[in-house]
Design goal:
- This protein is an alpha/beta fold.
- It has one helix and 24 strands.
- Strands 1-2-3-5-7-8-9-10-12-14-16-18-20-22-24 form a 15-stranded mixed beta sheet, with no helix packed on it.
- It is elongated and about 85 Å long.
Amino acid sequence: MDNIFAALILVSAFTFASGSAVMSSSSGKSALKGKAEEKEILMDFFNSTNGEYWTHKSGWGGPGDQCTDSWTGITCNGDGEVTQVKLIRNNQTGTLPESLGGLLSLEKLILKYGNIMGPLPSSIADLVQLTRLTISSHSITGAIPPLDKLTKLSIIELNDNDISGPFPPAMGRLTSLEQVLLHKNRISGTIPPLDNLTSLWYFDVGFNEIEGTCPSFQNFAPEWGSTFNVNNNHLSGHIPFFSNLPELIEINLAHNNLTGPVPLFEGLNALFVLTLTINSLSGPLPDLTRAPFLEFAYFDYNELSGSIPTFGHGSLKTLYINNNNFTGPLPDLTNLTKLNDLCLYYNKFSGPIPRFPLKLVEVIAAHNLFNGSLPDTGYLKDLKRINFR
């Protein structure tokens, strides 16, 4: 009986070992097949973007595979799957092939500075592992494909192309997004609500053809360097409320059709640049002391009115309030100890011309109603231009 039991154990062990060997062999063959398929996709990409003329192309087109032979710009995981394609300033031209969507483990696609033309492949929508999509400073045309399935996407960077079509509506639902860079294209339509994108901290869609109202930035992530740029579009309505965003360094709403008052910018302790140039904003200039580190402020070419509030801090280096409807005398400016550039022209300022801060380099205040003579400016050692005529 014992001999029979021992024999059964041996047969079972042999069967298990044989099965494991078959499974291991099958898995190995599958991995090899996957590598071969991905190599074919990469070579399709190489040929479609005129790889023969790339600046750097080590390994591409050789007999080895893309992972073990360290092809230029290719990163693989431990299973031999391509996870990153990164080629920057590599003289890429031509078009992107639809087969790119077959790199199903791809996490980062980074192609910058070249002349790739034509549309983005619709198959990009199948790259569900993608966390970064960067195809910038090329000549891409057409619309952005649907992004609904790219739920892991944290960076989309398609700036400096010739992309047209509507702003992707799915972008308001991609809750992993941290950075959106779509500036310098021809994107139209409206921006969806961004309230659910609580990881988003960098948003730049300037120089497009976007319409509708300006989205709120209020729920954005508290990340140092936060930026909100929607300049040079066709946005209308009021400026949304900005407050208690301590890491926000830049707001650029210039060259739109925004109306209504300039809101109070409270709790913006890192705000460095505020640009509201060329809109139809009205009402008074807000108290800028609530943004204590503001250095560059542009309110020019609007319909702002009233008197200028006293400036309570000395961080400002540039202040443009020209081409508005401001009235009354200028407040004391001498506490703006870092002010270099001051543009006041085409308003209705009156009263005497005040003393200027010591570091002033340029002041242009023509076409106002000032009276009296120009005060002595000999103490302004850096002054290069002054115009009150």
